[in-house]
Amino acid sequence: MTSYENLLTQKEKGTALSLTLSICRNKADIQPLLKNLTFDKFLFKKFLAEEVEANPIHIVANQNTLLIQVCLKGNANLKSLAQRKPITFKQAEYNILLLEKGETTTVVSDGDCNLVHIYLSEEFFFRYTPKDYSVPFYNLQSIGKLFQKNLYISPKLKNILAEIENCDFWGNLKSLYTKAKIIELLSLQLAQYEEEKIIPSTLKPLEVEKMILVKELIENNLSESYSISSLARTAGTNEQYLKKHFKLLFGNTVFGHTISCKMEKAKEMLLTGKYRITEIAEIVGYKHATHFTNAFKKFFGYLPQTLKTTKIFLGSYFSFGFELEMMEILMMV
Fold this sequence. Notes:
Layout: E1 17-23, E2 33-39, E3 42-47, H1 49-52, E4 57-61, E5 65-73, E6 76-80, E7 87-89, E8 93-99, E9 104-109, E10 114-121, H2 122-127, H3 138-142, E11 151-152, H4 155-166, H5 171-196, H6 205-220, H7 228-235, H8 239-250, H9 254-272, H10 277-283, H11 289-300, H12 304-314, H13 322-331
Antiparallel strand pairs: 1-2, 1-4, 3-10, 4-9, 5-8, 5-10, 6-7, 6-9, 8-11
């Protein structure tokens, strides 16, 4: 078990949940690789393509458990006996799923797939989800997933996952930090659902594919500064449809998504402590460091140098924003 897989907090110790994971390394394996994970309230687990390849992952939980599955790369299908058909995940998609007690859930990837799993107890999930919220919780029992359609992971959500994985705290402080990040993640996911449920069902699959192409082009080329017209030509659409459909599908404008990707990437790099501000500015597409610094402050509310100094001082992934506030609140829970 890796250091980030066991995320118990002393204040929340109770009936432990356990998962049994089995992975067949190849078709000739008679004895699959078995892994028993015990946790309380929440657990973070990352599956890399080179670890599981195209081999199915079988999951059995001893209690009803919520699973946030994020497909960072590639494609994957999730199937259990209670589901009529598999739940398909494409790159950059996620959903919240129900793993029923004692039932085997199987995840099959395309062999070049990176997945993130966050397992939550029912008590934890419903404690931090507003009871009067308009999310269709009945979906969990009826179709096995919270959102009718998978949502797309935003740069902010992706950055939170990286912060959880790379947190360099230990013990109870690490657990407290991870808890705060998971609650933040849940909050953003529910807010995203509220924004995206207005997407008209008349948006054609071809139009969706074009918008995904634009989204991936932006995210994979952060050093570039694309114009709306060039993106529209690349996707095979016009500027008006690009702006309208992109906002409907992803809940953000093309420009807003571009800035968000650049700033979240910059923040991630700053927190590693390995890059100078001038280097980061160039990587995310700014010719002048001062322009990058101004954009960063406008987006986050503080200077990049402030974040870098705070990282050195505290020795972990903190800024002056949500993280410290959440830590203070959770210390009292």
